[in-house]
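Justification of resources, computational component.

The compute hours requested in this renewal are based largely on the per-chain cost of generating structure records like the one below. Each record pairs the submitted sequence with a full structure-token output. That output is archived, and it is also reused by downstream analysis tasks.
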Amino acid sequence: MPKKSASARLVRSAAGELPARTTQDRDRLEAAMRIPVKPSEEREYHQLGPAVRRDASGQIVRPPLGPVRRAILAALDRHQMTRYELWKKAHARCATLSASAVYEYLRGTRNIGSEYVETLIEAARLKIVERGTPRARKPTTGRLKRSPTL
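The structure output for this chain reads:
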């Protein structure tokens, strides 16, 4: 059962009314972040997912999108299709695919299973082809070569 506070009163204040953070506060918080995680608590942190990384200006740093996500987004632009339309087409093929999974996958904040990715590829009218070194073809002269008969 949650612990009740001594004061049941709700306190509201604007951001401008809060005291400014001092360098001592910042140092205290940074020192607390460097404290190693206890093994008993490690499982709890693992369930939260990877830590959010921010740049110097405070913006969240997201890893670049992979080639499959970029191809699907490019196909959406090419076919003038919205993400919702993509989900509707994919949902017709796979009823367990949720709209939020599609949106978050294309945004790069979530990973989904390969069967869902294949469904999205089909719905975006894309084809997967093998990429590698192309084989050199023999030049043709326009006529079929016949083997000599004995």
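The chain has a mean pLDDT of 82. The helical segments are 23-33, 39-48, 67-78, 83-93, 99-107, 114-123.
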